[in-house]
Amino acid sequence: MNFPFKLAENRTFDVVGFGTNAVDFLIQVPQYPDFNSKVELIDYTQAAGGEVATTMAGLSRLGLKTCYVGRFGDDAAGELGYGSLESEGVDLTFAERVPGGTTQIAFIVIDARNGERTVIWKRDEKLAYTIVDVPLETVRDTRVLHLTPHDTAACIALAREARAAGVIVSTDIDRVFDGLEELLPLVDVLLASSDFPAAITGLSDQQSALMSLRGKFGCPVVGITLGDEGSLTLGPDGFIRSPAFAVPNGCRDTTGAGDSYRVGFLFGLIKGSSIEESCAMANAVAALKCRAIGARTSLPTPAELNALIKDAGPKSISGGESG
């Protein structure tokens, strides 16, 4: 099944990302603690994360030309986060260090038994963008704009500018925001968490909810990530169920797995792959990410991605819209 749109040619960037960056404090525990209890941690580490920043780092590691638009504080965490993207080769021309700002942080508790995590986060309001200060010019020289709508009005302005410039718009959504009904009609690729379609449509059946999303907002490609069950995507010719890959040597941490899924999916889109192939790449990147603690620690190289797909090779299952 082919993507129902064409990518622009002769652009400086393959993907421009607008959205969150963060520094994560990752805490491993033998099992998630009960309420009003104590547990001795196994280990802890500090690492760069954040939804869009992680996706741009992953795409850059796979060889694409990426640019990150976002704000860091002028604190030590901001230095770590900014430097992490710089070291991956992500263009930071439009990234900012905000004087007096505090970089977004997250405390992430990881259950060592299965790698599942719980995230506790905080974002400084000084890092937010408005429609007045968002750099619209960033989307005129890229093939894809990928965003998370934490600053929804700014996202809408960027998406409109992108559409006018012939740029494909992709978004990563995990909850309902004010203004989404204005943003979603501007989105070409909507990849959401498993519970988002039901939250916005009121339909519990996943296929019905995805069809309702596409029918209401017109997004040509809509899909959800399903953890160890892979993903479900609705394209122009029906549904694609793409199974998950086994994590090599076992899952250590699911932090950033969804962001990594977007890495593989957008990589497939840029490389001219089918939607089925892009879903398989997305699930493969997510599995490889889960090999180590941290959102970006084990994001794959092209050789690692190709090897997993070649060795494991699950086949996507296509079907009609009735499922």
What's the SSE blueprint?
Layout: E1 13-18, E2 22-29, E3 43-49, H1 51-61, E4 66-69, E5 71-73, H2 76-87, E6 96-98, E7 105-111, E8 117-122, E9 142-147, H3 152-164, E10 168-173, H4 180-183, E11 189-192, H5 196-201, H6 206-217, E12 221-225, E13 231-235, E14 238-242, H7 257-270, H8 275-289, H9 302-312, E15 317-319
Helix pairs in contact: 1-7, 7-8, 8-9
Give me the CATH architecture, please.
3-Layer(aba) Sandwich
End-to-end separation in angstroms reads 15 Å
Shape field: globular
How is the largest sheet built, in terms of strand order? 4-1-9-10-11-12-13-14-15
Q: Given this structure, which CATH class is correct?
A: Alpha Beta
Q: In percent, how helical is the residue content?
A: 25-40%
Quote the CATH topology.
UDP-N-acetylmuramoyl-L-alanine:D-glutamate ligase
Write down the Rg.
19 Å
Q: Number of folding domains?
A: 1
CATH homologous superfamily - what is it? Ribokinase
Strand content: 15-25%
Secondary-structure-based class equals alpha/beta
Report the sheet with the most strands, covering strand number, pairing sense and barrel closure: 9 strands, mixed
Low-confidence stretches: 314-323
User: Helix and strand succession?
Assistant: EEEHEEHEEEEHEHEHHEEEHHHE
Count of discrete alpha- or pi-helical segments spanning 4 or more residues: 9
For the secondary structure, the number of strands is 15
**Average of the residue pLDDT scores:** 94
